[in-house]
Structures are given as structure tokens and as C-alpha cells.
Specification:
The protein is of the alpha+beta class. Helix content is about 55%, strand content about 10%.
């Protein structure tokens, strides 16, 4: 399992939410490393195993199925620490998104995003599945945090965006409408957020280029420290995603990560992974995005873009990777 972590601020906000409901702190911390040390000695980041156990405990104590939504809407600019401060100093929303894509692993070390502009529409896609207690909780948490952050950043408390959720409509879907607006869609192939391109040019009232450079330098330092602790699996996935359209052989990837092929293979074995499995995961992510967003491209072109010379082989591989045919994804089923 990759060594992923969550910012301590998010943990503390969750603990505060549950304590305000009168729940017992000892029961909330049960089964986590914080049960012995307490929250007074909490570090800058907490392992996701602890965060997930806290969420399990919180759900059991409160019975609140909308907990992910409510936690996300508590995560404002100040909760994002130095990256939140960096967001505020950007010139416009376009610069903020550029910063987010560069340093988002400081906030969600297990997520990877793709951002693109098609005609007059911008699309932010989550290309992997959040590793939280449930799929719904992970998306509710991220979408809630994102819309709350944007509303504060742009000073637009009523801002709504088009949101797509890759799961069935939950029982508390009415809360989605209350918090996100009516432009929400369930049972989609991937989680996506869509908005008008003109929003990118929205100026930020707190823009400060000098402070932005200082905050970004600190973000770069923190990300470098975080990546040193990452598993070989995470480092491989991050590298393959950056090399979109280029799918190197295993020895080449090992060299890029400053490892010998033998050491690289051993490290992946220890993490119960293989290079082929990781390569297929990334190719599936890229193919899905092409199928969704580049509908003008013939299937043979998409097959070629992800490394297949034969369309039939691509269809079979994609069905094996995702459980869906390329045609189903393209049609939005």
C-alpha cells in the first residue's frame, strides 16, 4: 500500500466537528496512532490509515452519511495551510489552477488530476479513485473542499459548477443540490468538474506576486520532502502520468527513478505491485479521458495514442482494465 498521508489540519477539523456533536474523543481516536499519543503532539501530516479509521469511527458515532460533504465544506483556504496562502496571492483563477495542479499532492497525496480546456469549457478530471472509506466519501470531501475554496478565493459565495460523480445517486442527494447547485450528474465514467473558460480570467483581490514566489518556494520544499517518502508505486504512477503518450519499458523507468532494474523490481514486489499493472492503470486513465473528451477522434487514433497498433487489441485490453468497452464510455454509460 502506498505511503499516502493527509494534512493534519483536515484531521483536526474532523475531530472538532465530531466533538461539537458531543461524541467521545477516546472513541473517535480508537484504532489510530493518535489513541496513544493524543492530538496535542500531532505532526504536519497523518497517515491515511489513521485518517480512514477516524472517518470510520466518526461515521459510527454520528450515523451521518453526509459527513464527507460537511467536512469538505469546512476545508477553506486557511485549512490548506501554505498552499492556501499561495492560492490567495495568485493573479487570477488560471494561475491558481496551475499552482494546484503542480502542488496538489500537498493536499491529497493519493489523487491525480488532469485539466484541459475544450472550446469554451474547462474540465478538471480525477483520473484515479480516492482511497477513502468509501467512494462517495472521497468525492464528497474533495468536491466540497474545492467549491468552498473557490467561493472564498473568488468572493462568490453562490458559485456553482457542473459536477459529475462516478457512482449512483445516494439517498442524501438532495444535500448535493443544496451545497453544489442543480448541475450535478451521477453514474458518470469518471469524476469531473466543468466550468466556463471565462472564469479563468477572474482576478483575485488578494493578488501579490512577491508573496506568491515566497509561498511557492515553500510549497516546492514541502513537496520534495513528501516525495522522498513516497513509495516506488506512487513515484512510478506520477512519472508515467507526466509522460503521457510515451510508455517506456521498465528499465527506462527504473533509470529515471535512479534505481537499477533489479532494485526497482524488488521494491515493486515488496509493495505487491508490478510495472505492467501500473502501466496499464495509467494507459486506462489516459484512454478514458480521450474517450470522454476527444469524441471527434476515431477509436483507432485513441488506440494508437495509448500504445496499440490494432484497435481490436485495444478494445480487449480496455475492457480488461476497466470492465467497460470503449463504446460504453464514449456514450457516457
Amino acid at each position: 500500500m502506498p505511503n499516502t498521508t493527509t494534512p493534519a489540519q483536515y484531521i483536526l477539523i474532523l475531530i472538532d466537528m465530531i466533538e461539537q456533536r458531543g461524541c467521545d474523543l477516546e472513541k473517535l481516536l480508537a484504532g489510530t496512532s493518535l489513541a496513544d499519543t493524543g492530538i496535542s503532539t500531532i505532526g504536519a501530516r497523518i497517515p491515511d490509515t489513521d485518517f480512514n479509521q477516524l472517518v470510520i469511527n466518526a461515521l459510527a458515532l454520528t450515523g451521518d452519511h453526509a459527513l464527507g460533504l460537511k467536512l469538505g465544506l469546512r476545508l477553506n483556504l486557511s485549512a490548506h495551510a501554505v498552499l492556501g496562502q499561495a492560492f490567495m496571492t495568485c493573479t487570477d483563477l488560471a494561475q491558481t489552477i496551475e499552482l494546484f495542479l503542480k502542488y496538489n499532492h500537498l493536499l491529497a497525496s493519493d489523487l491525480h488530476f488532469e485539466f484541459e480546456t475544450l472550446d469554451e469549457q474547462c474540465i478538471l478530471t480525477i483520473v484515479n479513485t480516492p482511497r477513502h472509506v468509501s467512494l462517495e466519501f472521497g468525492y464528497e470531501l474533495f468536491y466540497g473542499a474545492l467549491i468552498n475554496t473557490l467561493r472564498g478565493l473568488l468572493n462568490k459565495p453562490e458559485l456553482t459548477l457542473s459536477m459529475e460523480f462516478p457512482y449512483s445517486r445516494p439517498e442524501h442527494a438532495q444535500m448535493y443540490c443544496e451545497m453544489f447547485g442543480d448541475d450535478i450528474h451521477f453514474d458518470t465514467p469518471q469524476g469531473r468538474i466543468l466550468f466556463d473558460r471565462e472564469l479563468l480570467a477572474t482576478p483575485l483581490p488578494s493578488s501579490n506576486p512577491v508573496l506568491r514566489n515566497l509561498y511557492e518556494a515553500e510549497c516546492a520544499r514541502l513537496l520534495a520532502d513528501l516525495e522522498e517518502d513516497n513509495s516506488v508505486t506512487e513515484r512510478t504512477l506520477r512519472l508515467l502520468r507526466k509522460l503521457e503518450g510515451q510508455y517506456p519499458q521498465m528499465p527506462q523507468i527504473a533509470a529515471m527513478l535512479n534505481l537499477s532494474p533489479r532494485t526497482y523490481r524488488r521494491r515493486l514486489d515488496e509493495e505487491q505491485q508490478s510495472y505492467q499493472r501500473l502501466l496499464d492503470q495509467v494507459r486506462a486513465e489516459h484512454a478514458t479521458r480521450y474517450l470522454q473528451n476527444k469524441k471527434h477522434l476515431p477509436l483507432s487514433s485513441i488506440a494508437y495514442m495509448v500504445g496499440f497498433s490494432d484497435t481490436s487489441n485495444f478494445r480487449r485490453a480496455y475492457l480488461k482494465w476497466t470492465g467497460k468497452s470503449p463504446g460504453e464510455v464514449r456514450r457516457g454509460h
